[in-house]
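Below is our example:

___
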Amino acid sequence: MQDREVRICVVGDELATGVGDARALGWTGRVVARTHFSRPAMLFTLAVPGETSTQLGARWEAETAARFGSDSEIENRLVVALGRHDVASGLTVARSRLNLANILDVADANRTAAFVVGPPPGMPAEGDRIAELSDAFADVASRRRVPYVDTYTPLAQHEQWLADLAQSGGVYPGQAGYGLMAWLVLHTGWHAWLGLPQDEVA
């Protein structure tokens, strides 16, 4: 695999693009910057603002197909970056679970390895529902042996995260918040998922 070209598609809402980050890196840019590939990897962030998991499920396959390669020397990878919009839009947890399950099952059928990043904390009033949603997503991923990054639990009471959110009215993190998300991704099986040695990620 080390000789293969790696193409990573990140599908999700605006949090996947780092909205609110003054450095415009978000967590995806920080993670890739700390990942050392034998050949330069291609990262495509395919985000739609305000998107629910239902909307994501309807579009991800066609959008990633245009970026993925069919050559046997190309390694296609899918990162599902789940946001909080299912809560705001009133989707049931059961529907959210089914949406993620369908995405992961199609990816598996296409022989595309998947990695899931769960929704981070947002408005305090939505905290319990986001926590429930994150737990449900984690269960779906676990049943399919897909790596899942719980960003909610470690950040719900994290001072830096809360300070970042406070500056944006409780919606988007800033540099510190995206750095925390990147740290969680890097320490939750990212390198193993890519078949790469674990670097020293402080």
User: Anything to note?
Assistant: The radius of gyration is 16 Å. The beta strands are 5-12, 42-47, 74-81, 113-117, 148-149. The longest strand covers residues 5-12.
